Amino acid sequence: MAKTDQYKHHDYYGVDELLSEEHLLARDAVRDWVKSEVTPIIEEYAERAECPKHLFKGLAEIGAYGPSLPVAYGGGGMDETAYGVIMQELERGDSGIRSMASVQGSLVMYPIYRYASEEQKKKYLPKLGAGELIGCFGLTEPDHGSNPAGMLSTIRDDGDAYILNGAKMWITNSPIADLAVVWARDEEGKIRGMIVDADSPGFSAPEIHGKWSLRASITGELVFEDVRVPKHQVFPEVRGLKGPLSCLSKARYGIAWGVIGAALDCYDSALRYSLEREQFGKPIGGFQLTQKKLAEMITEITKAQLLCWRLGTLADKGQASPAQISMAKRNNVLMALEIAREARQIHGGMGITNEYPIMRHMMNLETVLTYEGTHDIHLLITGMDVTGLNAFK
Ligand code: TGC
Ligand code: FAD
């Protein structure tokens, strides 16, 4: 293969031909933004374990928050495939940057759009879409991660407000959030969703330190001590776990696409390195064992692209089932993680340094394998779908 041909192999099956002009324009605009705003700084922010907060506004400007939500509600008015390709390009830069957009768009704007009153939608969505407010999503608790149905956070009726008590754990963006979408149990035992302003008395969001993964993303707890949540801030209709799980379906869909970006960045770097690095008098890309790694990488990326393209087509028709989304999230995250590990080997010792993006992607992907439903939880969702038997109960 001539060196000049190498980039065409990133789209081995011509998946671009299946995308519309709007998809390609959105993708290329985000790709350019990532190249100019994320790539030059991300390694340093990750090393310092610092969130590049200035990017929140830039993400809004490129339409990364809620691309498939209506424009009138702060979204981009595009389809689900456009949302997917945007997530792919963000995660080519860094999973933490994609996380910023996933949380704001799918886990904060989407539940407000779908479940809040018209008044609350008007109050919050335009500012969230413009990056003027930052939101977070509180579902996971210290003792209830994979099993959110067991949550202990509660709300108690107190006249014109509910009193919220409890704690949430591992919450992306919580220490810097202006508001949180929180899920807690009411006095009838039903799970309810609500918008909690971060300046409410009794609300705190301590940062979680010591992460070796998603270091450019800020993560914290949420602690509620008799927080008064006005009744109009509580989602009026939705009850039960399907409220938060419907938001997770949106975010998991975005992750299935997103991780293809991380995989492509690792593959791209490995391919380039294999053609430049010489050992035993020839490029290491000329050795069969290196070619095996690269050939398997592009095969797996191509399969993941086709899976996502089809999932996007189903989602655009409103037909992507939660189980289909689980299959894609699970398959594609492990695919990306394995590619990062193989790419690291191709880079030899250089692969462990910050000269290349590989270790950062690899460490990030360990979180992505776990959040939004762990690898094994998604396997059990597929298992339940094909057998009709529920392994969780
Ligand atoms: P189960 O009885 O199966 O379901 C309860 C109700 O929910 C409905 N449902 C869904 N609806 C929409 N989308 C989905 N994906 C849905 N999955 C289930 C279901 O039909 C039912 O509806 P109804 O009308 O009958 O009430 O619930 P279960 O308690 O048995 O739980 C099943 C299980 C284990 C699959 C679920 O709890 C689960 O998915 N656990 C994983 C938890 C998880 O993913 N947590 C993620 C937290 S948020 C996060 O990680 C953000 S990372 C952010 C970043 O990008 O930085
Ligand atoms: P556990 O549920 O304790 O699981 C531990 C292990 O047990 C896993 O391997 C799991 O697969 C396995 N396991 C559990 N149940 C079963 C079973 N039935 N069968 C077989 N194996 C099982 N949450 C939010 O609400 N909002 C956020 O913004 C958010 N952001 C996050 C950011 C980061 C950086 C991280 C690390 C997590 C984030 N999470 C967030 C939480 C995330 O969703 C949870 O970590 C995840 O759902 C798993 O929960 P857990 O960590 O408590 O693990």
Shape: globular
The CATH architecture term of the largest domain is Up-down Bundle
What's the domain count? 3
CATH topology call of the largest domain: Butyryl-CoA Dehydrogenase, subunit A, domain 3
Low-confidence residue ranges: 1-6
Helix proportion: 40-55%
What is the C-alpha radius of gyration, as a whole number of Å?
Answer: 21 Å
Strand content: 5-15%
The chain-level structural class is alpha+beta
User: Could you give the order of the helices and strands?
Assistant: HHHHHEEEEEEEHEEHHHH
Strand order in the largest sheet: 2-3-7-6
Q: Which ligands are bound?
A: 3-thiaglutaryl-CoA, flavin-adenine dinucleotide
Number of strands: 9
The tally of helices reads 10
CATH class of the largest domain: Mainly Alpha
- Alpha-carbon distance between the termini? 53 Å
Name the CATH superfamily classification of the largest domain. Butyryl-CoA Dehydrogenase, subunit A, domain 3
Q: For the report, how would you describe the main beta sheet?
A: 4 strands, antiparallel
What is the averaged pLDDT score?
A: 96
Reconstruct the topology from this structure.
Elements: H1 21-48, H2 55-61, H3 80-93, H4 95-115, H5 118-129, E1 135-138, E2 154-158, E3 161-172, E4 179-185, E5 191-197, E6 203-204, E7 219-230, H6 242-276, E8 278-279, E9 282-283, H7 288-316, H8 322-346, H9 358-370, H10 375-387
Parallel strand pairs: 1-4
Antiparallel strand pairs: 2-3, 3-7, 4-5, 6-7, 8-9
